[in-house]
Amino acid sequence: MAKSNIGKSNASIYSALAANLLIAITKFIAGGFTNSSSMISEGIHSVVDTTNQVLLLYGLKRSRKPPDSSRPFGYGKELYFWSFIVSILIFGFGGGVSIVQGISHIRHAQEPGKPTWNYIVLGLSVVFEGTSLLIANKEFNKARGNTGWWEAVIKSKDPSSFLVLFEDGAAVMGLTIVFVFMLIGHQYQLPWMDGVASVLVGCLLVVVSLILARESRSLLMGEGIAPKTQVLIRQLAEKDAAVIKVINVLSTYQSPEEVLLMLIVAFEPELETEDITLAIDRIRKAVKDQFPLVRFVIVQPQTYPLTDAAAGHSL
Predict the structure, then answer these.
(1) What H or E segment, with its residue span, contains residue 300?
(2) Which residue, 68, 96, 123, 143, is most buried by CB atoms nearer than 10 A?
(3) pLDDT at residue number 114
């Protein structure tokens, strides 16, 4: 159970937000002057990325609201909700619009203007987006440690980290596609290649959107702590002299920095209520001390062994 890097994610989101806003304006200007659908699609891509980063920042801000009477466990899941919205926006607005526009330009291809400005804008965009991608990947690699890259994405409880990484990666790939097809179209006088590039960029965004939606949905529905961590918590609780056995460990991430944990514990049958209360306090303190992300610990006493009726009731 690793500590979150939300502060670093915030910095990368702010820098990506500023860069994407400037790049989007430049792309639209260049696309308008040169009549390039793929450049306009790239401009749409940058607008979507800018909007996504605004929504991520909003989700991060909302997720830090303190608990209140209506949300006793806090607002941490706001981040997961807005991350899911971001993934849907990439699919619907970014991918969908690019594909529709690309098909339109394939069917009604027009000779583009001088592509010089497009090449300049693409070159600058690759530099900015590539730098952002390297920074995001460096931070992600630092956070994942020795864990495999894809495994780290699946296990990550901070969607802002891999959302920025995937967005930057898709941006660099999209720019590469546009550059290659624009060069081919200009070299061989094939104006419809510009529309093909737009469609491919749209398909790329749809694929990225589906991956991000899958991960964000999983977090929104409630992912628990890793099996290895469950074993460690179980062993820690069972060290207490009052405990016979930890029957079950239930958990869910409320946010990247907050875990809600419930332990169903069988205590020694001869213990008085006061003794069980003291044991619960000891277990709660031991777990919180060793696992700082566990903010809420609920310990439910249970008889042991379970009867069929008790088992059914506990479910």
Answers:
(1) strand 294-301
(2) 143
(3) 67
Domain ranges of the chain: 6-221, 227-314
Round to whole Å and give the CA distance between 57 and 115. 36
| Alpha helices (H) in the chain, listed in sequence order | 6-34, 37-63, 78-89, 96-107, 116-144, 149-155, 159-188, 192-221, 227-238, 273-290, 308-314
Q: Which two tokens stand for residue 272?
A: 């008085």
Provide the token pair at 309. Answer: 């009726």
Q: Is the pLDDT of residue 308 over 50?
A: no
Distance CA 231, CA 229 (A): 5
pLDDT tens digits, residue range 2-58?
A: 444 444 456 667 767 777 788 888 778 877 777 776 777 777 778 877 888 888 889
CATH 3.40.50.720 is the classification of domain 227-314: no
Question: What is the rounded CA–CA span in Å between residue 201 and residue 195?
Answer: 10
Instruction: Specify whether the CB–CB gap between 106 and 199 falls below 8 A.
Output: yes
CA-based angle 231:235:237, to the nearest 5?
120
Residue 133 has pLDDT above 60, yes or no: yes
pTM of the predicted model as reported, rounded to 2 decimal places: 0.75
Side-by-side strand order, sheet with 294-301: 243-255, 258-267, 294-301
Q: Which CATH superfamily is domain 6-221 in?
A: Cation efflux protein transmembrane domain (1.20.1510.10)
Which single residue is written with the structure tokens 């097809």? Answer: 181
